[in-house]
Structures are given as C-alpha cells and as structure tokens.
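Batch job 17 of 40 flagged for manual review because the log was empty.
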Amino acid sequence: QVQLVESGGGLVQPGGSLRLSCTTSENMFSFGTMGWYRQAPGKQRELVAEARRYGSRVYADSVRGRFTLSRDNPKNTMFLQMIRLKPEDTGVYYCGARTGDTGTWDYWGQGTQVTVSS
C-alpha cells in the first residue's frame, strides 16, 4: 500500500519560512506527478504546486516566487520550501501523487497544519 507522510508544518509569523517534507513508501519515479495541495477552513482544497516525473513544475499564482518544490529522489522525499509566508497561506497542506501526468490524484498524505499568524 502506497503511503505518503508529510511533516514540517507549524506556527510561523507573517514573513517567516517553513519547509514541508513528503516521504513516500514507493520510488518517486513510479508516480507521473507529485504535488502539494492545501485546504483552508471553509474552503476547497487547492493546488499549491506540482512536479512531473522528469522535472516540469507548476505553481499556483498565489505562491509563485515564494514557494519552491524540490525532490530528493534517492530519499523518495519531496519538499515545499515556503518563504515570505502570509496569513492567507494558512491551511492543512497535503502531499499527493498520481500515476499519470494529469487526472485524478491516486494517493494522499494525512496532511500537516501550517498556521501563519502574529
């Protein structure tokens, strides 16, 4: 059974930084796409960033230039480096994976809470 485990969330002040990690139980090259979504209270889950198997990245407009998705393939770990955090970045961040380049996400982690507040 595929498992995705997130870590690294927490409470940070506006303007601060956090780095989220997602470790998979499978070789990451078995997934066509991996990515990060977030869900704020009372809102739908939204895409933050995704990465295709061989490199291309997509970022939400709201985070482009502040968030960076990277992968450590030998460690089967994906990261989301977040800088200049804003209160509107608050939410539960989920790691996801799918076998294809597009379409339904097949696997999800349990989520990690990020709270940006003074």
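Reviewer: the log was empty due to a logging misconfiguration, but the result itself is present. The mean pLDDT is 94. Unflagging and moving on to job 18.
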